[in-house]
UniProtKB/TrEMBL annotation, chains A, B, C:
This is Methenyltetrahydromethanopterin cyclohydrolase. Keywords: Cytoplasm, Hydrolase, Methanogenesis, One-carbon metabolism. CDD domains: MCH. GO terms for cellular component: cytoplasm. It comes from Methanoculleus bourgensis (strain ATCC 43281 / DSM 3045 / OCM 15 / MS2).
Length: 315, 315, 315
């Protein structure tokens, strides 16, 4: 079985060694833990964003950035594909590990989760666990973790702290915008998993989403980076699962209660109480399904250029 | 002179060694022949499709996959370019070798053809032959070749059977859809060759075509994967050949007799008798020519989104 | 500090060693200087164009080529991004060194300029100078430099002539078309520098421009390759500089006096006297700015498909 930490470690090592070329800053803590700052005290950039996203996907995703267009506005898009949708997206990329140690807070994602099994239920349904003596984690945070935080991560992953590797970037940074848009395929797989669909039956995923311009603060950035997928993510999934017909109308974002406004506005109306929000909103704008056993295709949802450009600040 | 088998061998070796990351399965037969299954007993995927296509082109093509759109439907496209159109497309990628040994059948393509010279006439007109002690072949088939089949291939290529390498994928598979779309530039070069044009005068080719969703069976897949280029392949060729003016109106698919219906429908109407079909249909939807000696440009043909989406099953 | 010559040397070495795969021709002169001909006595191609452009950007840019579309015409586009806009674009890619030795003439660009400091003012404003014992230069010329020309370059860069490396391509060649389109981001950074803006505040740049079909002669090629960016270059810059608001209306090409006709026509009307032309024309068609300190976005200018297709010869 492939090890997502082993594959991601190769990508991390390149980022660590040549950090300067990525506008990133490498740190080795006293306990041997290694961290690459991709946007906290540095500017990061598109290359670091690509590398960060590939690490999130445990080395089982291909990532590229090209210039696209939404109505008359040129916007870069991230192109993502994977031939291991359940493992790469749910087993690694999903932000399923809330790292909360003393005063440090980060949304944790990446292959280290497949060692710490956070959350355990995910690894049961996808029937995957990693075994490797290095743990590679991606942290969405405004701050770098200290030695104590890395020790907690090492403990949870059952590896030596000197074998822990973290990449870190705030939501409101170029790498933040890139890596959240890079979750466009994951969002489709995640939604199907939430609906009770067996995502092991998905054999390939490909998609793209616009890279949101960077906002001034984290909450606004959380809004626009999520809107990139909610209102303009286009995904294609290939699968062996004729039962997908029963899930189709619940996949795209436009079937959720809050649909139609930028996420920040919805969040504000809910007094910034996350638990008031209809989580079914976290889906791609549109999804194409290619079901192999019947040779069928389905297309649900649609991109929404107006709300996307409004969220991004262009209109 | 460049050896297309030498260049393709490097790509094959990577695919063989890291097959699991490509959702592919490596096999070494008792006689030493090596095979990578990219879709017969496994699912393959986009990465295997890219590698398969680059092997087909003898390492002289660049291949990428990005999300595109046909009308309101998001569809992945393959992007192909080559600076050696005659050698890469006719000398390697063209499916010019029907491998028919006992009960085994496959459409053979790839650089091994430049050793076995199948068909010989092709290599005379492009004035290229390879010399190398390994043979790399791509097989479009629902089955893997056995030792006897590989020995026949070795004999035809005049190499040791232990030095034969094959990649295999059915038409009705993701790799099948990718690698047939990957022939979009080849189709333009092939058509010009069929028209009697000297393709050695073409200095560069670039193009893209949609990757057809996978159909349930091989005949339907043959239809939709060919329609990808016939109805939605866009190619640009650069050449030193003012005489191209005399060929322009015969290049694109829309000048052929059968044009206007999905290929499967045409095939069915001909009672699935291939020899009843106007072969001039096998062309890209549109071609741009940049003729260097006169600094001229020409644009012939047009994409046909309606028939493409109909063929793919969306309308 | 990163060395643009060190990074570019790696790219040059690959191009030199595998020149045949790039349709390029390597030369080693008696004095040890190395030259790769990418279009003077050979055809070059897309791969050589990518490599040439990455050398121009001192290894600090990412370059890709994909098929795009202008109105109903398929046209390849170059995709360019950099996380070091001032250094990659002004410190290396800018054609700031007129190489004029005896009868040899070339527009010089690339990292060697960061050793010879041509022009010195540029390096003062971007606060960058390279230190490296190899000099890598890109020459836009119809002819290859001889030993004497390379010695002058070595002297200006203060390196041993055996450590000088040059890539050469005419404007009217595929590599010429690719590498000039590859300046689309540079043109935006250059324009801001000309307007007195501090380009060190730009943290990332991404953009694309169509690759002009190759014209018959250099002057016409100069026109169409520049029109690619002037009339159809779309750029996004990320920066920390709220003062950008004062520069916005002067950035895009459509605010210049000559705007609206193919460059060749403007040049001809000025009796081919370069000094009669409004240099503010040398800008991208449209620019999106993401200003980080205020979390703002701006979009100025627009692509002009009609003039672009007219310049390229399609209408």
């Amino acid at each position: 079985m492939l090890s997502v930490n082993e594959l991601a470690l190769d990508i991390f090592e390149e980022l660590f060694e040549y950090a300067e070329e990525f506008n990133a800053v490498p740190h080795e803590l006293d306990n041997g833990a290694r961290i690459v700052d991709c946007g906290v005290s540095t500017t990061g950039g598109y290359r670091a964003g690509r590398q960060f996203t590939e690490i999130c996907m445990g080395g089982l995703g291909e990532v590229d950035i090209t210039m696209g267009r939404i109505k008359d506005v040129p916007i870069p898009f991230i192109e993502v594909s994977t031939d291991f949708p359940a493992i790469a997206c749910l087993g690694a990329q999903k932000a399923g590990w809330t790292v909360n140690v003393n005063k440090y807070f980060a949304m944790g994602s990446g292959p280290a989760r497949a060692l710490s099994l956070k959350p355990k239920h995910t690894y049961e349904v996808i029937e995957y666990e990693d075994e490797f003596d290095y743990a590679v984690i991606a942290l969405e945070s405004d701050h770098l973790p200290n030695a104590g935080v890395m020790e907690k991560i090492a403990d949870a992953c059952n590896v030596d702290v000197a074998n822990t590797c973290a990449v870190v970037a705030p939501t409101a940074s170029i790498v933040g915008s890139v890596q959240v848009a890079g979750r466009c395929v994951e969002t489709a797989v995640y939604k199907l998993n939430e609906l009770g669909f067996d995502t092991k039956k998905i054999t390939a995923g490909i998609g793209h989403a616009p890279i949101a311009p960077v906002k001034k603060d984290g909450t606004k950035a959380m809004g626009s980076t999520n809107d990139a997928t909610i209102y303009h993510g286009s995904i294609m999934l290939t699968m062996n699962a004729p039962e997908i017909k029963d899930y189709l109308d619940r996949i795209p974002s436009n079937t959720s209660r809050g649909y139609g406004k930028p996420f920040y506005d919805i969040f504000k109306e809910a007094n910034f109480d996350f638990y008031q929000i209809d989580t079914s909103l976290f889906s791609p704008a549109e999804v194409v399904i290619n079901e192999l056993s019947e040779g069928a295709v389905y297309h649900v949802g649609a991109v929404n250029p107006e709300v996307t450009l409004k969220s991004f600040g262009f209109i």
